[in-house]
Each structure stands twice: as C-alpha cells, then as structure tokens.
Write the structure tokens for this entry.
Amino acid sequence: MTQVIVLNGGSSSGKSGLARCLQAVLPEPWLAFGVDTLIQAMPASMRASEAGIEFAPDGEVVVGAAFRALEEAWIEGITAMARAGARVVVDEVFLGGAASQQRWQKALGGLQVLWVGVRCESAVAAGCEVARGDRLTGMAEAQAELVHQGVSYDLEVDTTHTEALECARIIAAQVH
Amino acid sequence: MTQVIVLNGGSSSGKSGLARCLQAVLPEPWLAFGVDTLIQAMPASMRASEAGIEFAPDGEVVVGAAFRALEEAWIEGITAMARAGARVVVDEVFLGGAASQQRWQKALGGLQVLWVGVRCESAVAAGCEVARGDRLTGMAEAQAELVHQGVSYDLEVDTTHTEALECARIIAAQVH
Amino acid sequence: MTQVIVLNGGSSSGKSGLARCLQAVLPEPWLAFGVDTLIQAMPASMRASEAGIEFAPDGEVVVGAAFRALEEAWIEGITAMARAGARVVVDEVFLGGAASQQRWQKALGGLQVLWVGVRCESAVAAGCEVARGDRLTGMAEAQAELVHQGVSYDLEVDTTHTEALECARIIAAQVH
Amino acid sequence: MTQVIVLNGGSSSGKSGLARCLQAVLPEPWLAFGVDTLIQAMPASMRASEAGIEFAPDGEVVVGAAFRALEEAWIEGITAMARAGARVVVDEVFLGGAASQQRWQKALGGLQVLWVGVRCESAVAAGCEVARGDRLTGMAEAQAELVHQGVSYDLEVDTTHTEALECARIIAAQVH
C-alpha cells in the first residue's frame, strides 16, 4: 500500500496545487506537508540568516547548518506519521538533487513510497512567479533543472501544458 | 491614454494572477483592485448575511441591498482614483452580466477604458478551485458563462491553454 | 453625521484590530481600508524600489515619488467613496506627521471626520511585532512617536493597557 | 534539557503569538507547530465533514473519527522530531481536557516536557476574536474553561493583562 507520495520540483512548478488536487481525488484522507510548512515553523530569525535559509536576489537559495539540523528532525517526524498509519503527500524542492533524495530515502526505508518528478518549463514557471506577485523572482528559473539532477522517479508529470487536476489523476492511478 | 483596464471573468478563471502579470509587464505603475478587496473591507458580519453577501453550498453567490450600496460607493471611489491620475486594473466578476457592466460604464464615463473578457473552460476553472484547496467549490462552474452574458469587450483572452503572462502581454499591446 | 474615521498610529499599535472591532460595534456597515490595502494594490516592483516604498533593516520606511503619486489618487478615491454615501474607517500611519494629516484634510474637506490617535507604548508595540513573527522589526519603535508629531485629534486611545474592543466602544461613542 | 513546550489554551487566548515570542527569546532555534498546522495539512473536505472537523455556529468544535486517526499520527510525528533532536513548541487546544493531555503524555513519554496553561479571560479572548475579523465567533468563550479541565501544568500564564513577550520571558525562565 502506498504510504507516502513525494512530489519534487522547482519553485513555482505547481507542486502545492498538485498536492491539493491529490487530496481531492484520492479516496482516503491524505495529509499534505511541504518544505514551506517547515520554513513557517522555524523562528523568524532563521528565515534571513546564514545559519538558516537565505533567498538571494538572483533566486539562489542558501541553506545553513542550523536549517539542515531541523530539516533532519522534520524528515524523521514526517516518516513517523506515515509509520503511525497516516498517508502523507510531501511537496519538496531537492536543492541538493540526488543527495536530497537520499536523505528522504534513508528515513523512509521500508515504507511504500511513490517518487514523482514535477516538471514545468522554466519560462512558464517564471510566469507563475510573476502571477503570484512574489517580490523575489528568479527562483523558478534557477531551480527548474537543478532539483532533478540525479533524482530517480517512479513517475514524472509536466505541468507546463497539463492542468494540476489532470496530473493528480495520473499520479493517483499509480497509488496502491 | 488608457486609464482603466477592467478584467471580467468567473471565479478561478485566473484574473488576479493576470492582474499581477499586467502590473509586471506594463511600463508604468498600475494599481490593481478586485472585488475581493471590497469584500475584505466589509464588516465580517456582511460576509454571511442576507443584506451582505452569501456563498451558497452549490456555488451560487447572492448579494443583498447593503452590499450593493457599498459597492456603488466603491465604484465611485475607484473611478475617482483614475480621474486623479492613477492607472487602475479592476478585477471583477459581473454576476449581473450586462447590468453589472452598465454600473461601471456609468461611473467611468469619459475615461479611457479597456474592457477585457477573461474566459476559462469551466472544467479547468473548477480544477483550479480544487488546486487552491477552497472549501467552497462550485463557483467556478456556476459563473463560467453567467458573467459574460450581454457584456461587450474590446478584447477577450482565454486562460484555458494560455499562460497568465502571455495573456498579459496580449492585453498590454492594446494599452495606449 | 460622521462619515469617516481616521485612525493614525505607528506600526503594531493595533490599528487594524481596532478597525475590525469598530466594524463590529458600530450599528451601520462601515468599510475599512488601510495603508496596507494600498501597498497590496501596488505592483510588486514598487514594494522594494526607490520610487516606491522601502523598508530599511532598522525599521525606517522610505517613500518615493511614484508611491506618493499613487497615494494622492488613493486618498481621492477613499474620499469619493465617502461622498458617495459609504462610511469609511481609514487605518493610517502618518510618517510625515502634520503634513500627512494635511493631505487627508485637504481631500476630505466638507465631510464629517473623526480624527483618532492610536497610541501604544513603544516597548509593547515592539512586542506585538515579535508576536506576529515579522521578519522586519524596528518599525514599531521607529514610528511610535514620529507619526503623532503635530497631528491634532478629536480623540486619543491607548492600546497599551486597553483591549481593542474597549477602545472601539470609546471611539464609537463619539460617532454621530 | 527541555525538549518540548506544550502551550494549551482556548481559541484566541494568544497561544500562537506566544509561540512566536518564545522562538524570539529562547537562545536556541525552536520549531513551532500548532493544531492549525494539522488542520491546514488535511484535505479541504475534512474541514467541513462529520468524519473530520466541524465548526458549529455557536463556537462548538466537533471532531470525527478520521480526524482523530490523523491527529494520532501527527502526535507521533511531532514526538519523533523531538526525539531526533529538534526543540519543539506545540500550540494546542485540549478540547477533551485531561484526555487530550494523556494522548500527548503517552507519546512524549521519556522526553523532557514543559506543560504550560495559557489562560485568558473569556471576555477578552472574545474581543480578540472580533479584532481578527473572524467570521465564526463564539469559540473563544466556549473553550476558555473547557480546555483546562483536569489538565496539570508546570506553569500557567495569563494573557489577559500580560503581553505575549512578557509571558514568553516567564516561560523561557523555566526552560532548561
């Protein structure tokens, strides 16, 4: 039985909308968490510091040691929720590519996981960034390719020309 | 010189993202207001009352007399901002079709206005509603055709298969 | 008949909560707008530029020429709403003290206005800033005294030791 | 070493502001999660259903079996984060009083926990509800006493007359 769905894609590739659609089309209740949930849970001071997470004007994201330590605990926590019986959609941005996936794989070992790559053409993702009115732009473009490097998937979807709800149906068909 | 751009379309047709994109592609600074700005400005008690605005479980929206009175003043206010020299994008849902347009036309008389119809296939708009995780669904479908009845436009865009940023460029080309 | 209530106070002095409470205790429906409504309506690019509005790390706020021009039009618009019959609560931060008040007075001329000063001890306001988890801190302290310089009021309230709802009742008693 | 701080109090008693202040005054980085984080993570359909969570017009909150099952997994997950080394502030509403506390105690067994009761006079909490402009009111009053029944604390704070930042300093002094 699939217990965890990991959606990995760059900023503005439509992952969180996709997660909401998955919750709507899957027959059982699934929890949805993302890296944004973790960032929100951190002290405000971590959101703009060298030890925490920094968003450079050019769209680069730099993550420090204190952030990494809390993230490790976060991954353990999400895994424990799944082991306790919850179904969980995780919406992630693998800034470290394959290394990021390995951190999750190590924790999730033994659980049934569906790994999903969420692609979106960099120009379209950049447009979504503008449409949301974000002050910081550039992340969509900086991350579009980066986050997929060396990552292996059970399934990939492309939100460039396919609506979130349709992508969700494609993914749901692979959930056991 | 175009002073006001009115975007009219159903719920979840992508108007507010389009408005943000217009602000990004137009060379001058434009203000963007929507019917949501007005609803936010009203007392909480108006958001669930017969005199105010009610959102029925099937997606129907019913507007009462007190809401209408404040809306009239709101339209006068937005018009006054344009007369005072501001460029304004208005993001609207013409629940009354042609009658709604006439209310704006009467107030805006004499100003250069670009009327834009924002279409989105009802199934796709309904999908966006799901992707946003709204508790109330059905508005997208209920409004998709309704809001365009009897309304005349300078220009129409369709967000079903065209990205917001591209639609914004098409509209911006008609702004003088 | 009082048509406009202007609440002026520094950042984190509790003005927006006070405006919501006023809407709840006043028998007629009042619209509530604030300088935040205006900032939200501006292009994202104006929120971090010399021509627009800049938030310095020490809490200072610098406003440029393009911001000022849009603000003038905004003031005209709010005034027009009141002239068209709406009752309006305006939640403001008079960064320019007396000069800011004069801009509003000039536009509102002839309308019945209740001018309310909203005080909050700078240490308590700074605490509210922390409690909200704002990334930028310092505004509360920088503005606590500044915004009241040379401003004349019909009424002053102090949110340091008085709850918002109680302050709202005190103000409502002066509304005709 | 204190690993977990559990803040328990009724709706609008100021717990989330208090959690933000704790993050600001404690020297180490703490994660802050609340029951709102869990509700946000659930499918939209759970937020208005008998199996999920229902908010009655009189302020009563009814929680169903599917909600309980996900909540159990959530508690396991938060506990696992603490066991993995993270410091965590939990902002909770013990609708079941002592029974709710026991669910957490069972999971957290062995970890150093600081149990904090957050009191707020029911009239003041109800005022905060109004000031936030919530559409649903009544929860503050319904929960003010209910959530503390049979619960035992290491420490209690009262936000009625004490600012969040000051309450946070009192709590922080008990953190080892």
User: Anything to note?
Assistant: Chain C has a mean pLDDT of 92. Strands of chain C lie at 4-8, 31-34, 53-55, 61-63, 88-92, 113-119, 155-158. The first strand of chain C starts at residue 4 and ends at 8. The CA atoms of residues 44 and 73 of chain C lie 18 Å apart.
